Amino acid sequence: MTRLAPEPVVVFAASSLTNVLAAAARAYERSTGVSVLVNVGASNSQARQILDGAPADVFCSADEVQMDVVERAGKIAPGTRVVLAFNRLVVVVPKERARRFSAITELFDPSVQRIAVGDPAAVPVGVYTRQYLEGAGLWARIQPRLVPTLNVRAALAAVEAGNADAAFVYATDAPLASRVAVAFEVPVDQMPAIVYPAAVATGGRNAADGRRLLAFLEREPGRAIFVRFGFGVPT
Prior knowledge:
This protein is of the alpha/beta class. The chain has helices at about 20-30, 45-50, 65-70, 125-135, 140, 150-160, 205-220, 220-230; strands spanning about 10-15, 35-40, 60, 80-85, 90-95, 115-120, 145-150, 165-170, 180-185, 195-200.
């Protein structure tokens, strides 16, 4: 009798987790034989899709706010929410005009007219950026130069394509673009904590493997994969 293959695990995840989750999915598939389908996008968009009934087994958000939205709606399994990783903010510029900023106020140089960032009203990287700039007392001054994008990868692409003079992105995304250079690393003590929570979602078809995948991601060897891609992990 032919044994049916198990349902794949469907993961809805933040754009900034694209590469690390692709690597983790391959490792999980090799060790279990269960395939993993990763759907990436801005966390607010992913949360909205889950609320609308998308069949996600696991949700990995780039901030606590979007996970809170999903949890309040009863769309994650109780007791499954964990913190997978941490990140940092950096400013990137086109590689052909690479420079290092001694302070974030160098963004007000006349050569920097368009600064890409995930939508500060909704996308986690934009929300984190706004919180940082508000704390530095620079938000009102810099806001007219901001170009909102759908997610962090779109902000990075805008600089690569020459459509922006700089962008706020996660430190883990910057090395993935060959035509950008890091100009400024936001000091850890000046930026909000960038946290990636994850949980088993209730609308999927393979909750059992969703739980096993989540356990894999938050323990070894999943933790090692996050570290390899530049993320911080809980101690």
